[in-house]
Amino acid sequence: VFGLLILGCSVCCKSSWNQLQDLCRLAKLSCPALGVSKKNLYDFEVEYLCDYKKIREQEYYLVKWRGYPDSENTWEPRQNLKCIRVLKQFHKDLERELVRRHRRSKPPRHLDPNLANYLVQKAKQRRALQRWEQELNAKRSHLGRITVENEVDLDGPPRSFVYINEYRVGEGITLNQVAVGCECQDCLLAPTGGCCPGASLHKFAYNDQGQVRLKAGQPIYECNSRCCCGYDCPNRVVQKGIRYDLCIFRTNDGRGWGVRTLEKIRKNSFVMEYVGEIITSEEAERRGQIYDRQGATYLFDLDYVEDVYTVDAAYYGNISHFVNHSCDPNLQVYNVFIDNLDERLPRIAFFATRTIWAGEELTFDYNMQGGGGKSPRGRGSDMGCEDPTPRHIWVIEWTKENSFAGVLRCSS
Ligand SMILES: [Zn+2]
Ligand SMILES: [Zn+2]
Ligand SMILES: [Zn+2]
Questions:
Q1: What residues contact residue 320 under an 8 Å CB cut-off, 6+ apart?
Q2: What b/e sequence results for 185-199 when a residue is b if at least 16 CB atoms lie within 10 Å of its CB, and e otherwise?
Q3: pLDDT at position 69, please?
Q4: Ligand 2 centre and the CA of 161: distance in Å?
Q5: Stretches in the chain below the pLDDT threshold 50
Q6: CA 282, CA 125: separation in Å to the nearest integer?
Q7: pLDDT at 390
Q8: Is 119 helix (H, G, I), strand (E, B) or coil?
Q9: How many angstroms does the Cα of residue 231 sit away from the middle of ligand 3?
Q10: Residue ranges with CB less than 5 Å from ion ligand 1
C-alpha cells in the first residue's frame, strides 16, 4: 500500500496522505509514519466542517472526521463540538464568502450546496497549506520561520517546488573551496591586511550591526571556513542565513504569491539569498525557451564578471522564489563571496534599502543590479533588446494572471 521497496529503489505513492490514513482506519491498521497509532485508531477528531444548518434554535455542523472517509461524515449539534478553532475558522470563511456573494454576513438557516462546497474546498486548502508550511519549516536551515497564508483564492501549494537553503550545483559545475582565510585579531576593528575583502583589494562590507555599508554593485567578501575568527565575527552575515520570520501570502491584486516580513527589518540589513540550481548559461538558454512557453521563468544570471552561469529557482529555491518584482523595491541585490571565490559564481544576497515594517511586502527590481536606468519591461514586450549598452538588462516576464514570474536574460 505504501509504495514498493526493492533493492533500495522506491516509487512514489499515488494516494494522498489522507487517503492512506483513511485506508488505515478502515483496515484497523496502525501506522506511526501516518500518525495512526493503536491509541488514536478509534479516536474521533474533527478535521474540518463541511456544512451548517439551523433547525429551530439548534445549530448543526456536518463534520469531516480526521482519518475517516467523507462517507462517514455526520451532522453534530454545536454543543457536541469542542473544536473552538475549527468552528471559528468555519464561521470566518462562511461570513467572508457570504459578504462576497450576497453582501451580508448572517448565515442562513441552510447553506446552498455551492457555498457548502466552497467551504470544504477552503478547509482542504488550509490543510494543504498547513502541511506545506510544516514541510518548508522542516527543510529550512535558517533561523527565520516561514508561514503560509492564502485568504484570497483557493490556490494551494505550488505543485513542483523544492525548498533548498543553498545553491544546488548542476552537473559539470564545481564550487572550489577557499584555500586561505584571514588572521585578524578583530576583523572589523583590527583587520590584518584588510581582512578577507582586503585580500582581493575590496572594502569591508559591514558595520558592527551587520548592516551593509557598500554601494550597490560592490562585492561583499565575508569571512570563511579558513578564517581564524569565530561565528560572531562581524564579517559573517549572509552565511548565517535568513533571520526574520517571513510569510508567503497570496496577493489580492493578481500577482500570485508574494512575501511579507512579520518583523521590522532595519535599513541595509541582510534579508535573504536568491538560491536555486546553478546551471550554465547555455542550459539557461534552453530552459528559458521552455519556461517562456509555459509563461514563467525564474532564471537569474550571475553576470558579475562574465555571463557563464545562471541560477534557476523554478523548481529548487528558497523563499526568494516567491518575492515579487517592483520598480520601487525595498530589497537591493549584492554579489557575495564566502567559501567560493570564483568571481563567476557569486552568491546573490538581498539587503533592505530602507526600514521595512512588519507586515510590508518584500520586493526587488530585477533591473537594478547593473544600473543603466532602464525600467523593467511589462508583459507583452518582446524579449529582444535594442539597447546594446548595459550588460545587465533583465526583462520582466509575466504569467497569464499578470503575476510576476521571474527574469529572462537579454539576448543582445
Ligand atoms: Zn578577518
Ligand atoms: Zn576572514
Ligand atoms: Zn572574520
A1: 259, 272, 273, 274, 275, 313, 350
A2: eebeeebeebbbbbe
A3: 86
A4: 35
A5: 1, 3, 369-412
A6: 39
A7: 29
A8: helix
A9: 8
A10: 182, 184, 187, 195
pLDDT at 95: 95
Name the 3-class secondary structure at 362: strand
| Residue 7: predicted pLDDT | 60
* 239 alpha carbon – ligand 2 mean position (Å): 12
Q: What residues form the annotated binding site for Zn(2+)?
A: 182, 184, 187, 195-196, 223, 227, 229, 233, 327, 385
Q: How far apart are the C-alpha atoms of 144 and 283, rounded to whole Å?
A: 33
The pLDDT score that the predictor gives to residue 316 is 96
Q: Are 339 and 347 in contact (CB under 8 A)?
A: no
Name the residues annotated as catalytic.
Answer: 274, 366
Q: What is the pLDDT of residue 352?
A: 98
* Whole-structure pTM value: 0.81
Instruction: Could you list the residues known to form a binding site, using ranges.
Output: 182, 184, 187, 195-196, 223, 227, 229, 233, 327, 385
Give distance in angstroms: CA of 208 to centre of ligand 2: 15
